[in-house]
């Protein structure tokens, strides 16, 4: 009878060791997966930051051009609104720069490029009047937003530069 208990004890120890080995293997696998997930997340953050830095470089260029009156306000606000809306790591840009986004909202439905060429003279004059009215109404807001945007963009580029 004592041989039975000895074999049972030996069998129990073997089972416990096998389960401990298997548990250790699973814990290593979980640790490896966590590490891979962390690396993937870091790579994604780097990619998003790289995208945003590229966008912000363009925003800075357009902002300077608008401040130096090398770019029309309507065209600049259009471009800035699209660029700022494409940022991946920053949100609520329309709340931060209401003048720029406000002007864009007022002119985005107006015809441009080839679509403008197909308009009659009267339609073009009507759209030009709408554009000029919107520009006059938002001019001071846009000027203020350009200064804030220049400062904001410069700071963000510094933060995103490794």
Automatic annotation (TrEMBL):
<keyword id="KW-1133">Transmembrane helix</keyword>
<dbReference type="Pfam" id="PF10675">
    <property type="entry name" value="DUF2489"/>
</dbReference>
<feature type="transmembrane region" description="Helical">
    <location>
        <begin position="6"/>
        <end position="24"/>
    </location>
</feature>
<keyword id="KW-0812">Transmembrane</keyword>
<protein>
    <recommendedName>
        <fullName>DUF2489 domain-containing protein</fullName>
    </recommendedName>
</protein>
<dbReference type="InterPro" id="IPR019617">
    <property type="entry name" value="DUF2489"/>
</dbReference>
<feature type="domain" description="DUF2489">
    <location>
        <begin position="16"/>
        <end position="148"/>
    </location>
</feature>
<keyword id="KW-0472">Membrane</keyword>
